[in-house]
Structure formats: structure tokens, C-alpha cells
């Protein structure tokens, strides 16, 4: 059975002056996604008045589409913008129609200011770039701001923090539409980390250790090859040649998660991939992913996706075209 949501169009609304890096993220990530040998998304960049628009840097970009593209969209993404006060009324109206019509509406970085200005986030959970959190809360106290996470999903509204978290948000969209295997394939193609959980801390309070031998990247790679084993913090610490206490502290610094939280996240992703790409019975999926039992698999997968393993497999299994 193929995925029921083909996601024919994905639209980026550029609000001048647009943040250039944020504007490029959906095209780079969603545009790189392939499903059964075809593009998974068609990305159309639009704005209130098509043509050359200013950016927050010294660059000028040409936007080919007007806001009529929003009407044909499945998902609308508002990228970061320096225009947090004066926002085109036509853009706000288009976003209200999109959200009111059930379309998925997302923001990257300060694009959350645009969604809030449109009134879409009132009483909803959202996030934005941490350096603008105080300003956001002062302007929009009715929004339940979560300033310490990478991205937030509240119904059909999503928001992420700045820069690389926009990549995480787009990979999350791919995973929601096409499953974990496709999302991880896209991540590898764009040389990004696998999909990170939205609740991960959005910034690191202390500097990351240098990559010359002191990072835990090697230990995480070692653990990924052994997810089916009942790994303990002690075993991870032994591989990293450090104490459990130091391991735990450095895991938090590098990933925002504890070692066991990180392992559980990776095991659920492995289970998703096995459900999507194999016909293995649930007992084997649970064992190979390190979740041990079908009951554990069911509980953790439902907590992450809202679906039972059987329902997830039915929704995301991909078979070669006839």
C-alpha cells in the first residue's frame, strides 16, 4: 500500500526581507526527497508581489509566484523574516485561509512572528529562534511559547527555531508524509543528521567538544550498529572511555538528550524503517530495533506517531512499482 498523502505541492511564502538561508532550506531538503523514483515534493516560492525581493543580507532573490500558489498548496512554509512588525496584509489573509482550510502551515525561525501576527497561534504551542523569544512573548503573550525545543507540532500548525532546525523541521515533514526510511534517505542525501526529535534542546549552553577525538559521535555510531542489544549507560561509557556521569553530561551537551532517551529515539526510528521496508513479524521488528517485545514496540510507536505498528506499516509500506 502506498502513502495516501502524495503532497504534490509545497509552498514557501517569502516575506521580504527574507532570511536567505531559511528560504533555501525547503527547496534543498524537500526538493531532494524522492519517492518510488519520483519527486516527493514540488516547492514553489511565492510572495505578495512576485519579482525581485530584498533579503536580510545583501542578496536579492527573484520569486516567481504570487500568493495564488497558496491556494494549490498542501503545506505552506513561512521562512524567517526581519519584517516582524509590518507584514503584508495579503500574506496574513492567505495564511488564515490556508490554515482555516486544513492545510499544514509551518514556520522556520522568525517566521513564527508571521503566523502569530495572523492570529494562527493564539492558544497554541509554538517556538521561534531563542534569541527572539523574549520579544515574541512580549508581542504575543497568548501563544504558548516553547523556547527550549527544536520544533513544535500543534495540530496542523508547526514551528521551528532558526538555521539548522529548519532542516530538522523539513525532515520531520518528510517523515510524517513518507515515513522514516524516506526521511533518513533524504537526510543522507543532503548530508544532514537523521531526524532529531522536536523536544531536543535548540541550543547548547556550553561549547561542543572538538571533533578531534573527544566527541561522542564515534560512540553514537557504535551504538547505532548495536541497537538490537540491551545497551546500558555503562557500556556506552566504556566505549567512550569515560565515566557514566561524564557520558551523561556530554550526551546532553551534544544532543540535548540523555543516553537512554537518545537510544530510545533511535530504536523507534529503526522500528519504523523495518516496518516500512520489510515484512518481518512484529516480534522480530521489536527484537531487531532493541524494543524487545511487541508490547513495547506498540507503546513507543504509538507514543511517537499515534499509530499501532500494523497501522504504521499499512500507511508507509513502499512496494516497487509494477
Describe this structure in words.
This protein has 322 residues and is of the alpha/beta class. It folds into 2 domains: 10-189, Rossmann fold; 208-322, Orthogonal Bundle (Arc Repressor Mutant, subunit A), CATH 1.10.10. Helix content is 44%, strand content 13%. The protein contains 14 helices and 12 strands. The protein has helices at residues 20-30, 68-71, 89-100, 111-117, 133-139, 164-178, 180-189, 217-224, 233-240, 244-255, 259-277, 282-289, 294-305, 309-316, and strands at residues 10-13, 34-35, 38-39, 43-46, 51-54, 60-63, 75-78, 104-108, 125-126, 144-145, 151-154, 157-160. Helix 6 packs antiparallel against helix 7, helix 9 (233-240) crosses helix 10 and helix 11 (259-277) runs antiparallel to helix 12 (282-289).
In CATH's first tier, which class of the largest domain applies? Answer: Alpha Beta
Shape: globular
CATH superfamily of the largest domain: Class I glutamine amidotransferase (GATase) domain
Q: Could you list the spans in which at least 5 consecutive residues all have pLDDT below 50?
A: 1-7, 200-213
Largest sheet composition: 6 strands, mixed
Radius of gyration: 20 Å
